């Protein structure tokens, strides 16, 4: 097993994919043998990607072990064992010479590893691995990273302009192919996501970009998609699918949640995530709610919450408390009054759900729940009149 290397995981215990890497298939309950000897890596989730074999703990949901075998280290793969009464459950991977540049996970003299699939079809899995080895996607990525040979054609201002023009033409062709129809869009989704990420890096590094322009670009980037979405085709329709979907949802939603104050409607999360799947099969509302209900069980940084007063369902960061929401409402009301020089008789001493929604760029129903939360905390009090429901600072709480 000295060709295996550590594999990075996200904070939600999802695999971190390398550039241009795509997940191809997944097997559950997989054991790894070092040669013919069973290792401690048992009953894990095995992902076949264009570049690696990724093994991740299946049972330990909070702190998963993860290792990877680069496909560049695999010489060949073949089915092993089996009998007339029982089909094969193992496959053998013959390994190439050790690459000293890679950090070996364990010391071993074995030149092959064995994978035991307790639940999957070994023969189909082996065929997938063989096709992936023949494709050699990792070589294409390495070739793309090699510097081009110097030529006077690319020298000087004219050369720079020709190079930029060529890149723009390639980009136009890629985008044109992607948007020809929905089928092509799905096929080109990964390339479009990579393209968006490159644009994002340029925006971040470029000086003089206004905050408004950056915000607008972030909206476009958010809609460009997820490179390896969790699907029922890959993960099945059981608990594993919803667990992995919960992890991917948590990875995806943390950043947009931070931008809107730590809470958003579940329906907004549903729409945002489905848009980001970039042509992959959409998830149902029930799938989203089931996955979100597992946030706490999986020790993820998000939680699903339903407000008793209205029945509104939201997704929120675990770091967001009712006390923090109340303090934010009080701060917004006080800062608004100070900024306008308002007195106790001025209208800005009160605040409505519509005002909070505009100020925080959230929906009116969520703004109303923020105000009701602050009222329950004793920070605000209400005045329900013909003009609508307005909230005021609780003067008695201030005196106390």
Features:
400 residues; alpha+beta; nine-stranded antiparallel β-sheet; three-stranded antiparallel β-sheet; 15 strands
Question: What does the secondary structure layout of this molecule look like, with pairings?
Answer:
Blueprint: E1 5-6, E2 23-34, E3 37-38, E4 44-49, E5 52-57, E6 66-70, E7 74-80, E8 90-95, E9 112-117, H1 122-135, H2 137-145, H3 156-178, H4 182-187, H5 189-205, H6 211-222, H7 232-235, H8 239-259, E10 263-265, H9 266-276, H10 285-292, E11 302-306, E12 313-317, H11 322-340, E13 350-351, H12 353-360, H13 364-376, E14 380-385, E15 388-393, H14 395-399
Antiparallel strand pairs: 1-6, 2-3, 2-4, 2-9, 4-5, 5-6, 7-8, 8-9, 10-12, 11-12, 13-15, 14-15
Largest sheet: 9 strands, antiparallel
The general outline is elongated
Helix/sheet category: alpha+beta
Radius of gyration of CA atoms, rounded to a whole number:
27 Å
* Helix/strand order, N-terminal first: EEEEEEEEEHHHHHHHHEHHEEHEHHEEH
